[in-house]
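Usage example:
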Amino acid sequence: MNASNETKSENPVISLCDVSKWYGDFQALKDINLEINLKEKIVICGPSGSGKSTLIRCLNRLEAHQEGKIHISGIELHETMKDVDIIRRDIGMVFQNFNLFPHLTVLENCMAGPNWVRGIDKKEAEKRAVAMLEQVKIPEQADKYPDQLSGGQQQRVAIARSLCMQPKVMLFDEPTSALDPEMVSEVLDTMVELANSGMTMICVTHEMGFARQVADRIIFMADGEIVEQNTPDEFFNNPKSDRTKTFLDQILI
Amino acid sequence: MFVDTVIEDKSLHKPAFLLGLSIAVLAFFFAFNFTNTIFGEFLSPVIGNPQESGFFGRLVVSFVLAIIFVLNLLLISFAKLKIQILIVWIELFFLFLAFAYSFDLELAYIFIGEPSKIWLMISKGLFTTIYISAVSIAIATAIAIVGAIAKLSNNGFAYAIASFYTSLFRGLPLLLQIYLIYMGLPQLGFMIDAIPSGIAALSLCYGAYMTEIFRAGIQSIPKGQWEASRALGFKFGLILRKIILPQSIPIIVPPTGNQFIAMLKDSSLVSVLGIWELMFMAKKIGSKDFNNLEMLLTAAMIYWALTIILEIIQARIERKYQQKA
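Running the assembly step on the lines above writes:
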């Protein structure tokens, strides 16, 4: 995996080709084509039910797509693959509801992946966990349990937990939607810092300020399709489709 | 449960309620004529020979009983909650003793003999009961974990076997299972002793109930825990061991404790196989001298004491997990 790092920087780290997904009769994704390069920051937005979350949940195969091809670092995701967990180790994911492990302390949450999955010994895993907690600026909470923390702190722990696996790509599924308003900025600040450090990021979010600040590309989805994708400047100042204009009118009051 | 913060007047302290209650209690005691019991004897200075006291005797006895009962309630109602609970427990216990006393038992019977009968019950019967229950509980827990995973899996064979198993062993009376295993397996050529077949029947039966408890416990953990673990690259076994089971233990412990207590008592059913556990010994020893009730009562008290110990342990474990949560 390490050797392939260099060569992959030219090829897209994630590529989707004609990807479709159905829930029963309802088509959630329609012929999605997308390529994401290493170090790129993508923001995906769109009205609810447009398939944004489904799309990024397909990227680490928490959801299965039925048609088309998804390649991660050149490896295709498909239903009979044996080692999907090897790919998942390299893709961090941050959820809307944090999904921290409530029976483990903050530190143990962060050590779990490296220690149990990657087989890194405890001391090394702890060192890494402490470093990541410092990066998200809550090293002092290491020995607390998740439910003793505020929502914003929990989400930062969730980010640190993912980073401890040293992923190549980070997926964010509406990371600030479940937070009280005053806690949104602390999480966004952490994400901006992460973006500045060169992490490849794909974020489903409605935080347009964040999108403007860090995104290389904004993807607008509606009804399971990619309607428009562009640089932030073009996207906000010169939206092409009517659906994008309507959406922007509603969201940027 | 949420107790409301508004303190209501105690209904016992309202005269109308008290009067109504007294009349109802009086009517109750009057309806169940207590004249010919020990209470009638106590009141014989007033009513004369209870047998001949007739309506007057019956009225006096029920009146005295009603007064004692209502006064008792009224006095207890002034005590603090903990003391109330203690007093009521003690009173009910003495009522139970009085019930047993009315059998006209020969209590010394259980202490005579060499070794004494109560010592035989404890050293042999109690030991066997605990041994059988403990082994069965351990096996049932192992069955339950496997069964629960099988019931939650997508594997058709695993699901079919597990659901057939729980359906069968929850559907047959335990006593019937004991006979089926003890008498059925030898037909297949497996000779099986009484104790192993008793343990097999208890573990299989309670394993089936506990499978459902464990399944519900595992299912009650939010889907997000699975997703987060999967997203970190955990494999199934690791998720179950490190993430899901530790979180479901606080949910599983209370109903499992109930199953343990129930199993301890149901182990008495294996007495039909001639295993020398509490129930069997009580019947065997007692019937020899026609002192059945003495021995059955002894067994009853031992079972009761055991379950009280188990309940205390269960409460301790629950409290420990509540503190953590």
